[in-house]
Amino acid sequence: MQRIGVIRDDRFFEHKPGHTHPEHPHRLRVIYRMLDKDFENDLISIQPKLASLEQLELVHTPTYIKKVFKTAEHNFSCLAPDTPASAKSCLAACLAAGGCIEGLNALFSKMCDICFCLVRPPGHHALADRAGGFCIFNNAAITARYAIKAYKLKRVLILDFDVHHGNGVNDLFYDCNEVMYMSTHDNFLYPYTGDFEETGTGEGEGYTINIPIPRQFNDEDLYHVYHEICHKVFYLFHPELIIVCAGFDAHERDPIGRSHMTEKLYGWLTTLFLRLRAGINRPPLLFVLEGGYDFRGLSYSVGEVLKAMTQYTDKSVLPDVESDHGGRLVEKAKQIHAKYGVWL
Ligand SMILES: [Zn+2]
Question: Which of 15, 24, 60, 125 is catalytic?
Fold first, then answer.
């Protein structure tokens, strides 16, 4: 039986980018409602703390942090054309980053075995000195850097199944061999980066795995990609911490993504990650909410992840899935990455 922690806090609703903005407070409201209804006694609720300046500076420049703090003086301002801020967006953003660190600490203190940080604003597009793609602070990247520093880790794996490429995470660790980043995404969508050939630089060569996914892919195709690549990555990179950038905008209902996944995929992926993790001494596993803009699709998907977590045992059966489409992408990634010898 897994002890599952969730980071939740109603103060995340205070980030109000506007009524018609897709990154709406209602995203978390529907998730929290679902938690209370379907997982009442199954989860350990953990209160987030605000990230400290020192923690934010693990990733972001002091000038950029100051710019974000300044937004608290106005009812409405714009950090980027697609990333507006209300007066309390700064509070929510500090709480989102701090909440992920709190989730990580809960894992290392053994308060729980897995933790899902149900936070907003999302983070994977945020750069050292820039907001973008609805992201203010890079929650996953800050947590990875914090983990390396506080717990002296040498190998952190970040898996990103959001439909958008996590260019922030990608860029922040591009020359680094302590963080391996694997992303599947539609690279004809914002931020239009993340091609196969973007594999890292210097010491980080081969530690960034980008896999653009065709729009006609289905659950089976994408699952197959993760099944094949994660097997290699888990056993050869042997992460001491796994962070999942859990965005659910590849869901067929999503108004921004153009993909055709269903919530079933997210349950499958969760079971896969748990099974592979069990084979490498169960490193801490932290899910961090990224995108997902259809309220129902989002809450179904998070529900499937939590169901897979609560029902998981080492005997859980992995889906028996084959996909030629997925297989071809795996082969292409292998061909490109073979010369680095990092996960092959
Ligand atoms: Zn996204």
Answer: 125
